[in-house]
């Protein structure tokens, strides 16, 4: 009885260890709405260096730049002796020793072995690769979202895999005799199978957390896709057990290989378990790597500080003729500078691109609902195309006929006959696509929602206060979202607006413009202290980040504002040319003329750089950055702390836009430094699988993250990973108060994932948050210059 009670208690500990391991895995969202994710989301509560040690042990790849890359930046002067000295001090190292370490390459230590690794050492068969292939073969069918024409029966992951594996003879052919029969004998319940496997492995609670994390890492993108299912369920106060069942599948393979290997393999496994139970601690070499990455981080912080403090600032117009609100996306920074240059009477502001309206939108004549909101939020506002109720049956039939024809062209039975008979008819389409010519477009309709008046007023007030736009309204105010026009790009949604859930920002922009033009809403706002003048009109726009053209939606614009809208269009025409000219030199084969049509080229690997290079986030009035060339690398969120007496807006900024920006920066970081683990590989080899992700080739692991071409130009990294610098203009005690109320956000700064600095009212970075307190920014030790 005591033994039974003891095992029951141990089983509960193993279930808890499994929960912990699953939370170590970052979610990967499907291609239709690929939003950026911090690949180390599960480790963000740990110190960054400790997290790096953990990831090395579980096979999660490197977290820091290779030493040779840092050494080259030091030699070029990009990383200064002062940066090195500050980094060495932060990590308790001698700066001279750190400089010497940069010249001595250090290999990433080998991950702890799974039983599949031990089996490979015994018989030379690539069991890890074999298991990855078999699980991938099954998972591609199990998780298919409509790409397959012969879908698998709906079932939970464990039940589905048992049915598949019990008929799969491939393991027997590879040398694992009787595997199918073994699967048939396994429990039908995933939790029972988990307990059975842990018992067979004699797994201890001490070794389990790291071992489970290691197994999930071997599942790569499949584990991350399953984690997205549980992450969304948890966000919406539900539960999904797919990832747990995937872990049970992977454990089943481990048990089979252990029992096949005999006594010698069991002895090797006992030694491995002891290693899994050891505490995770960074060694000296990893501490050097962390400090060298810190030096690169400090260099990015220094560069931002120098940009903000140098030169003469431009002053904004006191009474602008036009105000233009853009998304905080770094790609908007260039266009904002250009539009302010093109017309001094236009003043820009920055706000998260969903414009405070988390919506579930149903496009025209469609039954698909799009979540156009940050992934952190569960959108509750339902919208539709304005004329959707009037769309006749013929339009729906037309759209469904197009979809049915597409499925017929690709179906297994008809595809080859279709190519034989109809292929020549598509020569014109191929020529048109190759030349970047567009076909006819459908009529445009704006979105609408049906909310009670009180809710509309509250939404409008919340947005305007969060934008620090409560007075001084110009006669014309533009609300400008952004999107990216690309073709033949599986990862197209990664180039759209992250704040809109991987969709373009036009729907949210048009909804807000319509809301703020509503006379009843304006009356209600006036009662709450926000008076929008009768002569102010709001229009929406959409910035195409590939061509830098801006489309203006004139939804019911009055004739009285025609001249100002024409003025805005003229300014955007010039601004687009200025922005393309600036960007052209950054892209291979780029020129101002070709950028305008680059997105329609189906052979283009790099239609744009997306958010590559992002390195800073500024929350301050536009006056602090006006006229500064931030090189399209900084998120710009307008914020006036004087209009935020209870710090509610600042708390919202730090807990939402800053977190989303950190996910973006860290996703690019992971895709650059650990492309095998957190990158999607080579675009030229991609095959879309299940409508959810890509394989690199015709099998194997699902590849999460960004393609290599999104972070590398063929010669060098275009995204040099550095810690995102968050600069806030607000009193230090106000910022600290927010961090005290938001411990998860504070952990990002305390554990070294983000840098937090304070701006003074001149826009100069003066103070730095470090180790839980504020201090003057250190200048480093010039004495190390000789060693460098």
Description:
This protein is of the alpha/beta class and 788 residues long. 46% of the residues lie in helices and 11% in strands. Strands 11-10-16-17-18-19 form a 6-stranded mixed sheet, with helices on both faces. It is globular. It starts with a helix and ends in a 12-residue tail after the last strand.
**Number of helices, where a helix is a run of at least 4 consecutive DSSP H or I residues:** 29
Q: Could you name the ranges where pLDDT drops below 50 across 5 or more consecutive residues?
A: 780-788
In total, the number of strands is 19
- Trace the largest sheet across and list its strands: 11-10-16-17-18-19
Question: Span between N and C termini?
Answer: 67 Å
Fold blueprint:
Blueprint lengths: L1 H22 L24 H11 L8 H10 L4 H10 L4 H8 L12 H9 L3 H16 L14 H9 L4 H5 L4 H7 L4 H11 L7 H11 L1 H16 L6 H36 L6 H26 L12 E6 L2 H13 L3 E6 L7 E4 L7 E3 L8 E5 L7 H18 L4 H8 L4 H8 L12 E3 L3 H14 L9 E8 L22 H12 L1 H9 L9 E8 L5 E4 L8 H23 L7 H4 L20 E4 L14 E4 L10 H8 L1 H17 L1 H4 E3 L4 E4 L3 E4 L9 E2 L16 E5 L3 H10 L1 H8 L3 E6 L5 E6 L2 E4 L12
Parallel strand pairs: 1-2, 1-7, 3-5, 7-8, 10-11, 10-16, 12-15, 16-17
Antiparallel strand pairs: 3-4, 5-6, 8-9, 13-14, 17-18, 18-19
Helix pairs in contact: 1-12, 4-15, 5-15, 6-14, 11-14, 12-14, 13-14, 16-23, 20-22
Features:
single chain; 788 residues; alpha/beta; 4 domains; 5-stranded mixed beta sheet; 29 helices; 46% helix; disordered C terminus
What is the structure about, briefly put?
By secondary structure, this protein is of the alpha/beta class.
